[in-house]
Design goal:
Length: 256
């Protein structure tokens, strides 16, 4: 089995008429390519999204004519959210509290936000929230500090969602090919799907920062590449039995 690099897999993914070479390519090589593809797409999406978000926040804050916050409160004990392993803590009984492992800590005078990826904690004066219009920079900074954590969750969600979709589509395709007596293994079908999803991933990550809606065109691209790839990688069975000319190597049950 051949182990292709990222760019070799990328070039192959954009040419579904050569997907018969899936039999020559190691399955883990294609899976690593898919993980890197989503990671690179996520990084590009983040770079494109930051200036868009900055501009949106700056312009949207202008929609407030006046916003004043005046809260009178007293606490008998801190508030922990969630109660077990709290990530948000509100304790206005103390003026100065050193944050521990919380993502967010509010005291009487200060507001602490934990930066992602072990980059420390950012401290804000709670008084800055009293007039939002005069502290746009502080609010924008707060949102941008939270952005990496939000984007990381989006990356993991997108990765898992795409893998589930590929698995379900491959299972459905396997049922159809068995009914049609079209010979292709499930492992090869999954490898074809991991290649065929390339245009969809790229389109998704480019369109997301700008809020573009393509009427599900990215899914049409995936299905087009997937169907062409299945046809190229498999073959119809004959009356004497299964063809083996293109598929001797893909009858193994393991992912290779």
């Amino acid at each position: 089995m051949e182990k292709k690099g990222f760019f070799s897999n990328l070039g192959m993914a954009f040419n579904p008429f050569k997907y018969e070479r899936v039999h020559e390519t190691h399955g883990w090589s294609i899976f690593r390519y898919f993980l890197l593809l989503v990671l690179f797409g996520f990084l590009i999406c983040t770079v494109l999204f930051i200036p868009v978000l900055y501009g949106d926040v700056s312009s949207q804050i202008g929609n407030f004519k006046e916003l004043k916050i005046n809260i009178t409160q007293s606490m008998k004990s801190p508030v922990y959210l969630p109660s077990a392993n709290p990530r948000w803590v509100i304790d206005t009984r103390e003026k100065h509290v050193n944050p521990a492992g919380e993502n967010l800590l509010m005291t009487e005078d200060d507001f602490y936000v934990k930066k992602p990826f072990f980059l420390g904690t950012e401290k804000f004066d709670s008084g800055d929230f009293k007039d939002l219009m005069e502290n746009q920079g502080m609010l924008i900074t707060l949102i941008l500090l939270m952005l990496p954590s939000v984007m990381l969750m989006f990356y993991l969600y997108y990765l898992l969602k795409t893998l589930v979709v590929l698995f379900l589509v491959s299972v459905l395709a396997l049922v159809i090919t068995r009914i049609a007596k079209f010979d292709i293994s499930f492992n090869d079908m999954m490898k074809v799907a991991l290649w065929a999803v390339t245009p969809m991933v790229i389109v998704d990550f480019v369109r997301f920062p700008f809020g573009l809606f393509l009427f599900y065109g990215q899914y049409v691209l995936f299905l087009l590449f997937f169907v062409i790839g299945i046809v190229r990688a498999g073959d119809f069975e004959t009356d004497e039995g299964r063809h083996v000319s293109k598929k001797v190597k893909h009858k193994k049950s393991r992912f290779d």
